Amino acid sequence: MRVIDDGMSTRLYHRICDDKGLCYDVSAGYEGYEDDGVVDFAAGVQHGRVARVTSEIVSIMSELAEAGPTEDEIQKAKKRHAWDVRSLFDSPEELAGFFGLGELWKHPESPEQRLGAIANVTRDAVRDVARLLASPSRLNVVAVGMLDREEQKRLSEVVKGW
Question: What is the CATH superfamily name and number for domain 11-161?
Fold first, then answer.
């Protein structure tokens, strides 16, 4: 997720907002559950640009699944993650949450163990996860708001064409 969306310089925001100028805000997140998880993309988009933004998101995931991230993207994601892990020690609440979630998920680890695990993540591993996720059978699209018939048709074509 850090390769896709971890600020304005990562793939998602840079491409959709900066390069293409399609919207002002776009984000991605992951919600893990005991038996499943959800990768969620969201964007505040003009109604007439919904299909284009959706197409760009699908393209980003497809490209990541095909080629994987660049080495620079991997290194930046690792550095940002390491900074977040080290910052746990500045907040008793965050540190308690870290250990508490580990216990709840029955996967306890120390911050040092987490840093070690992330340090071992490879480009190929990220590409393999993207391949797992970038599957048309896993795609669900929800548009909140009123799309005119033409934009609904274009959005449907993007989804069916993936």
Answer: Metalloenzyme, LuxS/M16 peptidase-like (3.30.830.10)
Domain ranges of the chain: 11-161
The 10s digit of each residue's pLDDT in 39-85 is 999 999 999 999 999 999 999 999 999 999 999 999 999 999 999 99
Q: What is the pLDDT of residues 125-147, one digit of tens each?
A: 999 999 999 988 889 999 888 99
Q: Where are the alpha helices (DSSP H) in the chain?
A: 11-13, 50-67, 71-87, 92-104, 111-119, 123-133, 149-161
Query: Any residues with CB less than 8 A from the CB of 62 and at least 6 apart, and which?
Result: 134, 162
117 Cβ contact list (under 8 Å, min separation 6): 109
